[in-house]
Structure formats: structure tokens, C-alpha cells
Amino acid sequence: MLHDIPESEKICFCGHELTRIGEEKSEKLDIIPAKVQVEVHVRPKYACRHCEGISDETLPVVKIAPVPSQIAEKSMLSSGFLAYTITQKFADALPFYRQAGIFQRSGVDISRTTLSNTAIQVFEKLSPMMEDVRRELFKSKYLQIDETVLQVFKRSRKI
């Protein structure tokens, strides 16, 4: 952002125009909140106007591109959305019910059940790759792991 003095102040007391001789910069960190948007995928359909798309079997011949592959079948969530919510859940310890509440305040109605079920689909698809990673890890002579516990439910001290 440029913060300049008004044109009227760019005149010296002697009457001559001031010349820019440099600048001073300062930097500030800013946060741009996550923005949820709808991705619209369009798949044009094609048919022949000459023969009206009737094949030998008297079925209309219509061609359309296949639905793009996605990690969670028939999900309304993009791969970026899934990566975001799964990272929030497992790297930042933010449960799905809290994420659902955050999305709700942003005007996006998505249930924690949807987030959970979709995450399960992702893990099922990635399990072969995770098994490969596990095999590679166990080829090593030793492993270093962080075994810090994460409290999921607060246990009551009442008996």
C-alpha cells in the first residue's frame, strides 16, 4: 500500500517541486480468512444434428466427457476442501464438530457426519499408499516418533 503526501505538499518552501529520493517501507502480517466457494464443473453434451443422434440401435448418440475423478466418490467436497478439513482435524486437533460450527458461522451448512464419512473415504483410498510408507519406515534401523497424547474427551472425576 502506498501512503503518499498530498500533491499540494510536494512543493518546497523555495517554490520548486520536490523530487522523490527514496522511500521508507514497513511490513505487517495480515490474515485472509478461509474462503469457501463453489466450483462449477461444466461437461458439454454433443449430438449430431444431421442424423439427430439416432444410432443403429435407435438409441440417441450423445457424447459427454466423463466426470472428473475425485478422491471421495460422489462427494460435494473438493480435494482442496478435504485436505483442509483433514489437516485441521489431525494436524491441528480441531474436531469435525467444531469445524462444522466454523463453517456454519461462515454460511456453509455442512454436517460433521459428512466431514467424517468423507474423511473415511479418503483414508480408504489412501490406505495402499499408507501401507507402502509403513513398509519403508520399518526398513529403517530405528524410528523416531512423537508420542504426545491428545485428549479427545475430558473425563469426569465423578464416581
TrEMBL record:
Residues 74-157 form the Transposase IS66 central domain. Transmembrane segments: none annotated. Residues 10-52 form the Transposase IS66 zinc-finger binding domain. It holds the Pfam family DDE_Tnp_IS66. PANTHER family: BLL1576 PROTEIN. This is Putative helix-turn-helix domain of transposase IS66.
